[in-house]
Amino acid sequence: MSIDVTGQCLCGKVKFAAKGDPMMSCLCHCRACSRAVGMSPVHLLGVGTDSFSYTEGADDVEVVQGMGKMEHVYCKSCHGMVEQHPKGAGFVALLPATFRCETPDSSNPCGVSCKLPAELVPNIHINYENRHYDWNDDLPKFVGFPGSAKLKNDGTPA
């Protein structure tokens, strides 16, 4: 699967593009993500740093130290999150809610649909041991990242 998406912060001052093969599309339950965004889980799309670029407003971003190695990148004007990443990692985690993926939809009262294309929908849970409650879906659940131990919906070993 390859992606070609654009996105922006809340006010639109910071804009970005991501093009290439995503590393993962997941629901992350870790405390760093949950606290940074104010909800759990957080839908993240991981892309290599070479697949991500700022198209406008790169000088208007602020990097905030999060928990552990996490760095969260916000717009200095609206404080909307743009991306996050573990310091020194070769990838960035984007929030698909910031993508410009609206499509015209006359059946929707606002005239557009914000439904993500199938290739961007999350397909795994990560850091599931930190969940706020059990998720009863068919997606694979990992203690940490893919490759770590798998868990059942109730958090017991799979």
Structural class label: mainly beta
Helix residue percentage: under 10%
Instruction: Give average pLDDT, whole number.
Output: 94
Q: Please outline the major beta sheet.
A: 7 strands, mixed
* Series of secondary-structure elements, N-terminal to C-terminal: EEEHEEEEEEEEEEE
| Outline | globular
Radius of gyration: 16 Å
Distance separating the two termini: 27 Å
Spans of at least 5 consecutive residues whose pLDDT stays below 50 are none
Task: Output the strand order for the largest sheet.
Answer: 6-7-8-9-4-3-12
- Roughly what fraction of the amino acids lie in strands? 35-45%
Give me the count of strands: 14
Q: Output the number of helix runs.
A: 1
Describe the structure.
- The strands form four sheets. Strands 6-7-8-9-4-3-12 form a seven-stranded mixed beta sheet.
- The protein is globular.
- By secondary structure, it is mainly beta.
- A hairpin with a 4-residue loop joins β8 (81-86) and β9 (91-94).
- It has one helix at 31-37, and strands spanning 3-8, 15-20, 24-28, 42-48, 52-56, 61-65, 70-75, 81-86, 91-94, 103-104, 112-113, 124-126, 141-142, 150-151.
- The two termini are 27 Å apart.
- The protein has one helix and 14 strands; from the N terminus they run βββαβββββββββββ.
- Helix content is 4%, strand content 39%.
